[in-house]
Write a structure and sequence with these properties.
Blueprint: E1 4-8, H1 13-29, E2 32-39, H2 49-76, E3 81-87, H3 90-100, E4 105-109, H4 117-121, H5 124-131, E5 135-139
Parallel strand pairs: 1-2, 1-4, 2-3, 4-5
Length: 140
């Protein structure tokens, strides 16, 4: 039924549950599993080029480690996990990548790293479910 599964992954507990389910679904359906991490923070200061470069390198290391850990978990389960790191708004980027990649299913944890702002603005999971081009499974 599912051939391409996109996992919105930020390393949170909700995302880890979604990863575990994604691995199971990918094996069950013999589907391709892809994990997407979205870095949304831009430097909030007028810095020099070197400061902006350092901020970008820090984010790449941080999210690279998160995605690498997800890859290890998938490999231990005998599955290959493609990873993508993008800069942008998390919900918009998940929808964009799912559309571009023609994914059949998006997996997203119910609660991620958005914290208190989610109470006011809505969670990434809610936003993705409203705008996704395919089925969305919100994992609790």
């Amino acid at each position: 039924m599912f051939k391409k599964i996109l996992l919105a992954y930020d390393g949170s507990e909700g995302a880890k549950k979604a990863l575990a389910l994604g691995i199971d679904l990918a094996r069950l359906h013999q589907a391709k599993l892809c994990a997407l991490a979205v870095w949304e923070r831009l430097p909030r200061f007028s810095g020099t080029i070197n400061e902006v470069k350092e901020e970008k390198e820090f984010a790449e290391r941080q999210y690279g480690e998160i995605l690498s850990n997800a890859q290890v978990q998938a490999q231990e389960a005998g599955l290959e996990l493609e990873t993508i790191l993008r800069l942008g708004h998390p919900a918009q980027m998940v929808v964009q990548v799912a559309t571009e990649g023609q994914h059949d299913l998006i997996l997203v944890g119910h609660s991620g790293l958005s914290g208190v702002w989610a109470k006011f603005l809505g969670t990434t999971a809610e936003k993705v479910s409203r705008h996704a081009p395919c089925s969305v499974l919100i994992v609790r």
